[in-house]
Amino acid sequence: MMDPIYYLLIWIAAAAVAAYIVDVVRRRPEQANPNGKLPYEKQKNFLSPAEHSFYLAMQNHLESQFTICPKVGIKELICVQKGVGRDWRKYFNWISRKHVDFVLCRPDTMEVICAVELDDKSHLRQDRRRRDEFVDKLFEQVGIPLFHIPVKPGYTHEDFAPVLLLREEFTLK
């Protein structure tokens, strides 16, 4: 009969092998679609009707002072600081799937000047308010002005007044 310590060692070794296999499977790169199915199609519209209307109004009122980039991923604007160690992935995941509606850049350098969120009724939902609060704090932290402009049938020059003030700032540089 085997000594009980051997049973314990065998159990520990089996658990270590199982943990290793689970880790390897988790880290395995995403495999190509094995059966070749591609159940995708082109979106009918890149911008919603409200976003498109707002985009045209921005073009008109900002008079080509900015390059307007719609639907920009926050991860393209903001990165996780070095030195967070193992928490890097956690912090990255908090921003990786979030977008802002528009980003305005200097046309000559593509330096980010500000971001604009077009707030429709969905921004009244509790989950959306939590998301907006996080994004507002994030943009404030990194020094990118973020403007919230409510959706409406038409826009006037006054709707873009805060953005137009930034134009004066960046032209002085």
Automatic annotation (TrEMBL):
Domain DUF2726: 44-159
Species per Swiss-Prot/TrEMBL record: Fumia xinanensis
Residues spanning the membrane: 6-25
InterPro entries: DUF2726
Entry keyword set: Membrane, Transmembrane, Transmembrane helix
Protein name: DUF2726 domain-containing protein
